[in-house]
Amino acid sequence: MNIRDEALRELDRLIETGKRAASSYSLGEMSTVYWSSFEEHELRAFRASAAACVERLTGRGSEFYKHLPSREAHLQSSRDVVEGVLGVVLSLREAVEHDLLVRVEQRVRSNTHDDFLTQAEELLGARPSYHVAAMVLVGGVLEDQLRKMCVSRSLKWNGKDGMGTYNDALKEVAYPQAVWRRIQVVADNRNAAAHGGEDAAKLKHADVEDDLRWVRKFLGENVA
Q: Which of 86, 96, 134, 200 is deepest in the core (most CB within 10 A)?
């Protein structure tokens, strides 16, 4: 099961719970306030789970997250809040199902790649520089992207898993030979950094910076 299907399954579970929660409200005798038969902790668990799911899939800056109703002191008497949360989850489910969002897999992967490349930048900017460690991170990000590109194109590769074999499989399919050659440079530098010793000592700070810039550009131009 891929990430998109897992997201849909989680959203379906939240929708089922939300519908039961929303339908649990009724007016008591001589009352003008709708009251839920659900326990307060059950309603809070639903809201918290829904908010966590929306944040994980779309981020705090998304319109989906912004439209989540604010927290209320007492959800048992706040039917509008529960219905509002359910409405957001229903809308998000439709968006994920019909690919109206950036593919969930791409979002998760992109965030992970950004984290690692940001760490690499911090290592490069440190004094003394940790450019050898930064090169390992940069190479790992590129290798993961190449593997995803092979999988999404149903490409088979010869030999052991690795940047070189993924790169060979993608040559002239996803990009031209010039890009293949540039990836080989990153692979060689990453291998030198990972193995340590004299090869790692020969790595230059400027070369790692250049590889980092190139990998960022490659990621922006080549999606899985």
A: 134
Residue boundaries of the structural domains of the chain:
3-97, 104-221
HEC sequence for the chain: CCHHHHHHHHHHHHHHHHHHHHCCEEECCCCCCEEECCCHHHHHHHHHHHHHHHHHHHCCCCHHHHCCCCCCCCHHHCHHHHHHHHHHHHHHHHHHHCCCCCCHHHHHHHHHHHHHHHHHHHHHHCCCCCHHHHHHHHHHHHHHHHHHHHHHCCCCCCCCCCHHHHHHHHECCCECHHHHHHHHHHHHHHHHHHHCHHHHHHCCHHHHHHHHHHHHHHHHHCCC
CB 11 within 8 A of CB 53: yes
- Looking at domain 104-221, does it have CATH number 1.20.120? yes
- As given in the structure block, the two tokens for residue 56 are 């994980």
CA atoms of 50 and 81, how far apart (whole Å): 12
pLDDT < 50 stretches in the chain: 105, 108
171, β-bridge pairs: 175
Residues 6+ apart with CB under 8 A from 81: 47, 69, 70, 72, 75
Q: CA 46 to CA 43: how far, in whole Å?
A: 5
Task: Give CA separation, 79 vs 19, 30, 33, 52, 82, in Å.
Answer: 11, 18, 9, 20, 5
From CA 110, how far away is CA 131, in angstroms rounded?
A: 22
Q: What is the pTM of this model?
A: 0.52
Residue 100 and residue 58: Cα distance in Å, rounded?
12
